[in-house]
C-alpha cells in the first residue's frame, strides 16, 4: 500500500520547526505506552522506524515520517504520563495541544485506546480538544492480543458509548494488534484512501 519509501523526516519540539505544511498528514495520539510508535512500525512494516519502548514517555518529540512524497505520518508524545518531571510533562502537553489545534494539513487524528483499559478521562479531554478544533478523529483500539474476546467486546462498547458525546469522531473504530497484525491492513487502507 505504501509503494514508495518511508523515511524519518525530523523530530520537532516546537511548532516553528514543523515541516512545511505541503501535504496531508495523519497523527497518532494516545496515552503514554498505548502503542503509537509500535503501530507506525506495523503500518510501515518497519521494525524500528518509530522507537517503541516499554518505558512510558518514550516519544518526547513530534516525529514526522514521510510516505514517499505523498503523506506524513506523525508520531506524537503520549499524554497522561505523570512520572516524568512536571515541567517536562507540561512542555509536551502544551506542544501536543498546539499541534492538534493548529496544524492546517492535519487530516485526521487517530486516537489510540488500549483495549485492556477502554477510554479514560484523559482520552476524553483530547477528544474534546479535537472536537473544538474541528479535527476529525478516529479511535484505534490497541493491543487487542492482550485480552480475551469478552473484554474486547466490552471495552469496544464502552468506547462506542463514549464517542456518542464527541461529534468529531469518525464512527468506525479499528481494533488492532501491532504484535499480531490485526487491523493493520484495514488502517493502511484508510490512510491510503485519503486524498
Ligand atoms: P510513548 O511513546 O511512551 O507515548 O508510547 P507509545 O504509545 O509510542 O507506545 P509504544 O509503541 O512504545 O509501545 C509501548 C509498549 O507496548 C512496548 O513495550 C510495545 O512492545 C508494547 N505494544 C505495543 N503495541 C502492542 C500490541 O499490539 N501488542 C502487544 N502485546 N504489545 C504491544
Ligand atoms: Mg512512542
From TrEMBL:
Show where the EngB-type G domain sits. 22-195
What is this protein's name?
Probable GTP-binding protein EngB
Q: Which organism is it from?
A: Stagnihabitans tardus
What's one GO BP annotation on this UniProt entry? division septum assembly
What cofactors does the UniProt entry give for this protein?
Answer: Mg(2+)
In alphabetical order, the GO MF annotations are: GTP binding; metal ion binding
Protein family = Belongs to the TRAFAC class TrmE-Era-EngA-EngB-Septin-like GTPase superfamily. EngB GTPase family.
Question: Which keywords does UniProt give here?
Answer: Cell cycle, Cell division, GTP-binding, Magnesium, Metal-binding, Nucleotide-binding, Septation
Which superkingdom does the taxonomy of this entry point to? Bacteria
Which is a Gene Ontology cellular component entry for this protein? cytosol
> By which gene is this protein encoded?
engB
What HAMAP family does this protein's entry cite?
GTPase_EngB
For this protein, the record's Pfam families field holds:
MMR_HSR1
Query: According to its UniProt entry, what is the function of this protein?
Result: Necessary for normal cell division and for the maintenance of normal septation.
Amino acid at each position: 500500500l505504501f509503494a514508495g519509501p518511508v523515511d524519518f523526516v525530523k523530530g520537532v519540539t516546537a511548532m516553528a520547526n514543523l515541516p512545511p505544511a505541503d501535504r496531508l498528514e495523519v497523527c497518532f495520539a494516545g496515552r503514554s505506552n498505548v502503542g503509537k510508535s509500535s503501530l507506525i512500525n506495523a503500518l510501515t512494516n518497519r521494525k524500528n522506524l518509530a522507537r517503541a519502548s516499554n518505558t512510558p514517555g518514550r516519544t518526547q518529540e513530534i516525529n514526522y515520517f514521510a510516505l514517499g512524497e505523498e503523506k506524513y505520518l506523525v508520531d506524537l508524545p503520549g499524554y497522561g504520563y505523570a512520572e516524568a518531571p512536571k515541567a517536562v510533562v507540561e512542555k509536551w502537553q502544551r506542544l501536543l495541544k498546539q499541534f492538534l489545534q493548529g496544524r492546517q494539513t492535519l487530516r485526521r487524528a487517530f486516537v489510540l485506546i488500549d483495549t485492556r483499559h477502554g477510554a479514560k478521562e484523559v482520552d476524553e479531554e483530547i477528544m474534546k480538544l479535537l472536537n473544538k478544533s474541528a479535527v476529525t478523529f478516529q479511535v484505534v483500539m490497541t493491543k487487542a492480543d492482550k485480552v480475551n474476546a469478552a473484554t474486547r467486546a466490552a471495552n469496544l462498547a464502552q468506547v462506542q458509548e463514549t464517542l456518542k458525546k464527541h461529534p468529531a469522531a469518525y464512527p468506525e473504530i479499528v481494533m488492532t494488534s501491532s504484535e499480531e497484525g490485526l487491523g493493520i491492513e484495514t488502517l493502511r487502507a484508510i490512510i491510503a484512501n485519503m486524498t
